[in-house]
Protein 1
Amino acid sequence: MKPRSRISVHQTQRMALTTGLATSIRILRADAAGLSRYLEEAAAENPQIILTRPQVQDWIPRWKSAFASDAEPPEQQSAGPSLVSHVLALIENLRLSPAETRIAMALAEALEPSGWLGRAPSAIAAQLAVGLPAVEQVLARLQQRADPTGLFARNLADCLRLQAEEAGELDRAMRALLDRLDLLAKGGIERIAREAGLDQTELRQALGRLRSYDPKPGAAFEPFAAPVREPDLIAEKGASGWIVSLNRSALPSVSVAEGRGKGRAEARALIRMIEGRNATLLSVGQEILTRQTAALEAGLGALQPMTMAEVARAVGLHESTISRVVAGTAVDTPRGTWWLRSLFGKAPREGGPAAGALRDRLARLVAEEDPDHPLSDEALAAALAEGGAPLARRTVAKYRTMLNLPPAHRRRRRA
C-alpha cells in the first residue's frame, strides 16, 4: 500500500510570555521591599520615572490602642523573634561596610529554617559578582558572632563543628565523628574507630558530647513570625469590622516626569502595573482576613480552614495569581506581623480546625510543658483531643517536625 501525504489545518491558542507580561508577574509577586528595589532600578534606567520616597522611619509593631490609653497591650502572637529578624539584628550589630553588608544580607536570605545555609558560598559569590574569599570572610564573621552557635553553617557537620569549637571539644575523636557522619548514622562506630585509629571507648565518649549539641539552631526561633520590616498590608478594626489597607509608607510613589522624552510610555505602563498590583493585593488581603476574622480576634489558634482555590473563586482570580500575591506578603495586625501564606490551610479532619490552628496549639502546649517532664507525641495528641481536635500520633509528629520542635527526649536533654 502506497503511503499518502495529507495536509491538515489546526487552530490552536496559546499565551506567549512577553516582556510586559513577565514584568507584570514580577511586580505582582514582589513584596514591598522587593518592589522598591525594582522601582529604583527602573528609575535609574528610565529618567521619565520619578520616585518620591516616603519619610524614612523605623517600623515597629503597632499598639495604637494601647499607646492611646492605659489599657494593657494585647498579647503578642509570637513568643519570640523570627530567625530573619534575629539575623538582621546580628548583621546590624557587626557594623559591616556597605560591600560586606550586601554579602551578609545575601547570606541571610539563603538561610533555611534549620539555621543552615541553603546555598553554597560559591553560588552566592557568583550571584553578587564578588570573589569567593570575600563571601567566606563575611561568613566567618557571622558564624563567629552568631547566637546560638551553629547559625550560618554550611551543613550538619559544619553546624556541629562550630559548636564543638566553642565548647573546646573539637579533639581528634570529635573530628573523626564529624568527618564520618554518614557512618555514624548507620551505627558504624567500629568502622570509624578502625579508619581513624582510635579506641571505641574514646569515640563513644565523644559521641555523648556530640549528642548534646543542637543540630538545628534555627529551630529556637518563632516559626510563624514574619521578619521585623515594613509590612505590605495593615489590618485595623473599625466601627464596621476589620479593614485592610495598603502600607503606603513601605513603597515610594511613582509619577511621570514633566515634558517630553523617550521612555514616557514605559513609565506610564509601569504605573498601571503597580496600580493593578496594589488593587489585587488589597482585594486578596481583604478577602483572606475577612475569612480569618476569628484569628484576628483571638490569635492564630483560631485559624479557619481556607484554601487558595476558595479565595480565588471569591475574588474572581486564578489560583496561581493568589499564590503569587501572597508569596512573601506580610500583614501587620494588633497581634503581630503575619505572613499571608501562613493563614492558608485545610482541616486534617472534616469539620475540624485548620492545620495552622492545630500547629499553633501544639506549639503552645510544648512552650507551657514542664521542662523536666516534656510531653510525648502521644500525650500531645491526647491534649489536643481534649480541646476538640483529635489527631493521630503520626500527625502530631509531622506537625512537630514542621515547627522544628525536637522530640520529648531531646527537649528533656536540652532543658
Note: DSSP finds 20 helices and six strands in the chain.
Protein 2
Amino acid sequence: MKTDKVILGVLGGAAAGALLGILFAPDKGKKTRKKIMQKGMDYSDDMKDKFDHVLTAATKKYEAILQEGKDLIAEGKEKFTATKDGVENFEV
C-alpha cells in the first residue's frame, strides 16, 4: 500500500472515532457541535499540511527528474559533437 493511502485511512478512522466519541459524550448539543466543528477544523488543517507535504515532495522529484533529463540531453549532444568532429578529422 502506498503511504498516502495509509495516512488517509488512519486520519479517516481517527476522524470517525472522534466523531462517534463526541456524539455519544454526555455534553449539551451546543458544546457537542462546537467540539465536532473544532475536530473537523483540526483534521482539515492536518489534511492540508499532509497534502502540501506530498505536493512539495512530488514537485521536488519532478524537478530532479527534469534536470536529470536536461543533463542527459546535454551530455548526448556533447558526445555527438565529439564523435562528429572525430569523423570529420579522420583521414584515410
Note: The mean pLDDT is 84.
